[in-house]
Specification:
Elements (H helix, E strand, L loop, with lengths): L41 E2 L6 H11 L2 H8 L3 H4 L14 H15 L4 E2 L2 H7 L3 H4 L5 H15 L8 H6 L1 E9 L5 E8 L3 E2 L7 H10 L2 E3 L5 E3 L4 E3 L1 E7 L5 E4 L7 H10 L5 E3 H12 L3 H4 L1 H4 L2 H7 L4 E3 L5 E4 L1 H22 L16 E4 L2 E4 L2 H7 L8 E3 L21 H25 L1 E8 L3 E4 L2 E4 L3 H4 E7 L4 H11 L8 E8 L2 E7 L16 E6 L3 E2 L2 E2 L8 E11 L5 E13 L6 H6 L5 E5 L10 E2 L19 E5 L7 H5 L11 E6 L9 E5 L6 H11 L10 E6 L25 E6 L7 E8 L9 E6 L4 H12 L6 E6 L5 E4 L17 E6 L7 E9 L4 H4 L8 E4 L4 E5 L14 E10 L4 H8 L16 E7 L2 E6 L6 H4 L7 E5 L10 E8 L11 E6 L6 H12 L6 E7 L4 E5 L4 E3 L6 E3 L14 E6 ...
Parallel strand pairs: 1-2, 5-10, 17-23, 26-30, 31-34, 35-39, 40-46, 47-53
Antiparallel strand pairs: 3-4, 3-9, 6-9, 7-8, 10-16, 11-13, 12-13, 14-15, 17-20, 18-19, 21-22, 21-23, 24-25, 26-27, 28-29, 28-30, 31-32, 33-34, 35-36, 37-38, 37-39, 40-43, 41-42, 42-43, 44-45, 44-46, 47-48, 49-50, 49-53, 51-52
Helix pairs in contact: 4-5, 4-17, 10-11
């Protein structure tokens, strides 16, 4: 459903990314921004791919890796244009990586997109939204590259650049025999805690001798007995990749040294030293070190060889020798850090004397200082994975400041063309972004009435829309309006106007013809009133914010014919200028005198009315704080009783809800069915339960064997709430409904789960179970089968998705429910049938034969809520009051299940389906005579086009079902082809002929004109003598397709190109198109008699459902009917993987 939710809005060089979507006036469709002053390109985050971006940037800034990849040409890797050809072996991952590196080097955009690369990985939007471990990704990516480069000159690229060896030696202390074992590695994992640098970490992990003695003796093969021995590792320094564990430096001595070295005077009060330590590591000395090292002053005293305390122990400094030594160490470490992190920024001068440091954070690339790097990567924020490059590696002179170095010619040409296209689009976008809409209101078309301006005829005729460049001056705007309004005579004044509830009001007159519209702060969509600056229709117009008209509700007593006041209030709207006196209300209502009470628009209740003293009647409405929608009450000064109370229209505000409603669901006799229990957010659930049992006068035994379960708005009982929770912890709102139910609530180590049998689950029919969260999926399945009264081992579990349908399967039968992130309240489904092996699909196959006219127009007495009949066919069954769908009725016959690999092609799926026993009665010459559709809502859904495309590329999923449609001849539909069912209307009848398939090539656009020409050519009719319409089966309506290629918007004078892919047509494969021949029939009606019947049945069905819901609400009181949609479960966990084809 949400397949496009997370797609990139725009990509300057990705295939098929231009021209998608409507041209809305937003920045979402603007071309990407050019590079910043650093001249480096970032990488856009697809939602959760920051770990991928950091690895790709690191590989991109490794020249040896980048240029080795560039050295592989199309003759070895193939071409992306050939990736969809059946026999072509295209190594997509290296090609997309080459293309991404070329974009990062040469394309003038702020950030590149990895969408094409992750598509080559076989990732879906799920993988792109999940965080993964970057070290795991690095190993998987290197493995995928090695597999992709098999049989090419780059087959050893990874081993050549990143390979290293470790030799494990064990030396016998008795006979001196040496046993060696060699291991290959691409990265090393070292611990950095309490070490001064990388050399120490490598020494501790791989060089330092390990002794086997005492209880840990070594069995020597030469001596043939247990002896003392020593083990050490020797590594070949042929590696430039190191993986460092993220452990914080925890030596207080080193931290205090670093703090003191940052002080210019090398002297600091001890109290400030503690504060700077807190700022540096985020925790105080007393909390982190006092228990192990004692107070701070005592620690400084114990290390007098390093720290020098003053006589009163108030200040501390570093001893001179230690200071020099520590500065030398840090300088050496900084130099190493510089060599480690500095790489070759393409296009910049990388002289050793002038290194460049950059912070690359997804799309943003900013310069960073060396001291900021040290501060950023310390403590808990230390680096997790570091890439090292040999310092002896030198770049050739021609590579300096040359980003085009070693880039293949075809990529250079592609990037040059893309840069030209970007320049053109940026110029067009700049022009578009500086145009805005102005709404011109013409004075001669307005009249002043009831305190504001109103159109004489209609708003459409009195307002004109004008698109104008905001960089032009006010004088240019005035001249353009003069040219537009040829009838205008005399002076022209332009004023800013705004719509208020009373009408249109003029605020500010625009002056300064030499100023641009930006300088006078004219906004997009501004309303401009065009007039002579004095009057409209002979009436002088008040202008300005001071006299803004206010629309007020005035309530005053009604008067009888004898001029006596009646006990009834009249509520009338009145318009007053903001600067008018409040006392003018008497004049407007023709009331000589009285008392005025005011009430703001938000307040309710008699207590919110305020009486205005007589001395304040000369204040203006604005001074009194009145605004649009405020209410004014005029009351007789001699009437002691309030007319508000007599009228009964207002009541005092309701106190804040501070109670919960508990309903008795224990099926025990009780005098009360439900009670209200007073509570606060900090009230414990146990107390509420005990109070409810007492007030419901139930048995005391329920205190030990009952629980409270929230009742949602649809009446469904949710997961029990633990007794020890407060209402705030349980996320229960005041006024909620709870059910007192038998049985204990689950403990903190247990899960409360709903489950049901089959995928067609009716709301409220789920069963419930409480299991330990450590139980395996296999054991949980057994418990559910036992409770359901089912047997056998041909079952599996699936999660219920947010659409109340079967979702992801629980594949790992030995995994605990806790490991699969299941939580209390989740719903599982018992589905019959074993799960296929990983990497395989179990696809139900259906036979789809499109119906002819007789079946197509079958009686609407039948119903399209299909059920599976004994003959293996989904038939239309009758259900009371439900509407039917004649045009969308289908007959699907179940043939059987096919278990097939995800790497198989669509053609192989068809071939395997033809081997099913049920298929033998059909005479199909070859798989090419079959058309494949996915089954959605028991009807053909998405058309699967390419015969040789792999099933994995269709992203079918484990629950996909396929229906096969027979063809009279072979077809080869391309990505630009759309398959439509066309039906010619029968002359003189409200009916259509048999449907005929029509293939429409949309390469020149999805326009109405293109479709009309294709239909006319197909039926050999003049294009101007046909009318076409799309059928909407769910509404029993026909939507005519217009005969023009462009349509004019209602308020704007601009024209927009139509697109039948968008609203309201949403044209797709399989849609029905009705055709009317105007040579024999010229009316506008496309509907049939069956459509009339279907619409009537829909209305009757909706009315009956509404009545049933109302009756159900009346019967259930405060608790509504059962739920239709459960809460959305958590998404399933998935491991990281990259899919690679076979090139061996």
């Amino acid at each position: 459903m949400f397949g496009d939710l997370f797609e990139e809005d725009y990509s300057s060089v990705s295939n098929d990314h231009y021209g998608k979507g409507k041209k809305l006036k937003t920045k979402a469709l603007e071309p990407p921004a050019p590079r910043e002053f650093t001249n480096l390109s970032g990488i856009r985050n697809q939602g959760g791919t920051c770990y991928l971006n950091s690895l790709l940037q690191t590989l991109h800034f490794t020249p040896e890796f980048r240029e080795a990849l560039f050295s592989l040409g199309p003759e070895e890797l193939g071409s992306l244009e050939d990736k969809d050809k059946p026999d072509a072996k295209v190594r997509i991952i290296p090609l997309q990586l080459q293309r991404l590196f070329a974009q990062l080097l040469l394309l003038d955009q702020e950030a590149a997109s990895t969408t094409d690369l992750t598509d080559s990985f076989g990732w879906t939007s799920d993988e792109e939204m999940r965080q993964h471990d970057v070290q795991e990704l690095n190993r998987i990516l290197f493995s995928a590259l090695e597999t992709s480069l098999v049989g090419t000159s780059g087959h050893d690229l990874i081993n050549r650049l990143y390979h290293g060896t470790i030799v494990n030696q064990i030396v016998c202390k008795e006979c001196k025999n040496v046993s060696e074992k060699q291991e290959d590695f691409l990265d090393l994992t070292v611990a950095v805690r309490n070490v001064s640098g990388l050399e120490d970490a490598l020494w501790n992990m791989y060089v330092e001798e390990e002794v086997f003695d005492y209880d840990n003796l070594y069995h020597c093969g030469t001596c043939d007995r247990l002896v003392k021995a020593a083990k050490e590792d020797k590594s070949n320094p042929d590696v430039n990749l190191e993986d460092l564990q993220n452990e914080e430096i925890d030596d207080p001595l080193m931290i205090l040294k670093a703090v003191l070295l940052q002080e210019e005077s090398n002297l600091i009060p001890v109290d400030q030293l503690g504060q700077k330590l807190l700022k540096k590591i985020g925790i105080s000395w007393n909390k982190k070190y006092r228990k192990q090292y004692g107070p701070l002053r005592k620690f400084l005293q114990l290390h007098s060889q390093i720290f020098l305390l003053s006589s009163d122990e108030s200040t501390v400094s570093l001893l001179k020798d230690c200071s020099l030594q520590t500065e030398s160490d840090i300088r050496r470490n900084d130099q190493q850090l510089l060599k480690t992190l500095t790489s070759e920024p393409p296009g910049l001068n990388d002289r050793p004397s002038c290194p460049h440091w950059f912070d690359v954070n997804d799309s943003q690339v900013q310069p960073i200082k060396e001291e900021d790097i040290e501060q950023q990567f310390q403590g808990k924020e230390s680096a997790y994975m570091l890439f090292y490059r040999k310092s002896q590696l030198q770049r050739p002179p021609e590579a300096r400041a040359n980003p085009r170095y070693r880039v293949p010619c075809h990529l250079l040409n592609e990037m040059d063309a893309a840069n030209i296209e970007l320049q053109i689009k940026r110029a067009e976008c700049d022009s578009t972004n500086n145009n805005f809409e102005l709404h011109l209101h013409l004075g001669p078309y307005y009249h002043f009435f009831n305190g504001a301006l109103h159109p004489v005829v209609s708003q459409t005729e009195s307002m004109w829309d004008l698109t104008f460049d905001k960089r032009k001056t006010l004088g240019d705007l005035r001249q353009s309006i003069f040219q537009l309004l040829e009838f205008w005579e005399g002076d022209m004044v332009l004023s800013v106007a705004k719509f208020v509830p009373a009408g249109l009001h003029v605020y500010q007159t625009l002056d300064g013809d030499h100023l641009t519209l930006c300088e006078i702060e004219i906004a997009d969509g501004e309303d401009i009133f065009v007039w002579n600056g004095v009057e409209v229709g002979g009436i002088q117009i008040p202008a300005g914010s001071d006299c803004e008209p206010l629309l007020l509700n005035v309530l005053h007593p009604a008067t009888s014919s004898e001029e006596e006041q009646c006990q009834q209030l009249i509520d009338s709207p009145y318009v007053f200028p903001s600067n008018a006196e409040i006392g003018s209300v008497f004049t407007a209502c023709a009331i000589p005198d009285g008392v005025i009470l005011v009430n703001s628009a938000e307040s309710v209740g008699e207590e919110s009315w305020t009486t205005i003293p007589k001395e304040d009647l000369k204040k203006t409405f604005r001074e009194q704080g009145l605004r649009n929608g405020s209410s004014i009450l005029i009351q007789d000064s001699n009437d002691g009783n309030s007319l508000l109370t007599k009228r009964g229209k207002w009541i005092t505000s309701v106190n804040e809800v501070d109670w919960l409603q508990v309903k008795n669901l224990c099926q025990l006799d009780s005098e009360e069915e439900q009670v209200k229990i007073s509570a606060t957010l900090n009230t414990v659930v146990f107390d509420i339960r005990i109070k409810a049992i007492k007030e419901l006068k139930l048995m005391k035994e329920l205190a030990e064997d009952s629980c409270l379960r929230p009742i949602d708005r649809d009446g469904k009982l949710l997961c029990p709430v633990p007794d020890n929770y407060t209402l705030k912890e349980a996320e229960l709102k005041m006024g909620s409904s709870l059910g007192l139910c038998p049985g204990k609530a689950p403990t903190s180590s247990q899960l409360f789960l709903f489950f049901a049998v089959g995928s067609d689950v009716q709301p409220g029919m789920e069963m419930e179970i409480i299991v330990e969260e450590t139980i395996s999926v296999r054991d949980c399945l057994k418990v559910m089968l036992e409770k359901s009264g089912l047997s056998g081992d041909a079952w599996h579990l699936r999660k219920m998705d947010w659409c109340y349908e079967a979702g992801e399967a629980l594949w790992e039968e030995d995994a605990a429910l806790k490991e699969l992130m299941l939580s209390s309240g989740d719903t599982l489904l018992l589905i019959e049938g074993k799960l296929p092996p990983l990497g395989f699909l179990k696809v139900p196959i259906w036979w789809y034969q499109p119906r002819g006219t007789l079946h197509h127009w079958k009686s609407h007495q039948d119903q399209t809520n299909c059920t599976f009949s004994q003959g293996g066919v989904w038939r239309a069954n009758s259900i009371q009051d439900a509407p039917s769908d004649a045009h969308a009725e289908v007959s699907l016959r179940y043939l059987g299940d096919v278990e097939i690999s995800e790497d198989a092609t669509l053609g192989e799926l068809k071939s395997q389906a033809m081997t099913l026993p049920s298929f033998s009665e059909f005479s199909i010459p070859s798989p090419a005579f079959l058309r494949a559709w996915t089954v959605e809502s028991r009807r053909p859904g998405r058309l699967l086009r390419v015969h040789y495309q792999r099933l994995r590329e269709y992203k079918l999923g484990q629950r996909t079902e396929i229906c096969l449609e027979p063809l009279q001849k072979e077809e080869n539909l391309g990505p630009q082809h759309v398959l439509l069912r066309t039906q010619m209307r029968l002359p003189g009848k409200r009916a259509y002929a048999l449907p005929v398939d029509l293939v429409w090539d949309t390469a020149r656009g999805w326009t109405a004109g293109s479709l009309r020409h294709r239909v006319a050519d197909f039926y050999s009719l003049p294009v101007e003598k046909i009318e076409i319409a799309k059928y909407l089966p769910e509404k029993f309506e026909w939507l005519p397709v217009p005969s023009w290629n462009q349509q004019i918007t209602k308020r704007k004078k601009k024209k927009k190109q139509d697109n039948l892919q968008g609203a309201p047509y949403h044209l797709k494969d399989g849609d029905t198109i009705g055709i009317k021949n105007l040579l024999v029939e010229d009316d506008d009606d496309f509907s049939t008699v069956r459509d009339d019947i279907g619409r009537e049945k829909q209305k009757a069905f909706a009315l009956g459902r509404k009545k049933r819901q109302e009756a159900l609400r009346v019967r259930s009181g405060d608790v509504p009917s059962a739920a239709e949609m459960p809460p959305r479960p958590r998404g399933p966990e998935a491991s990281l993987s990259i899919h690679v084809g076979s090139f061996r």
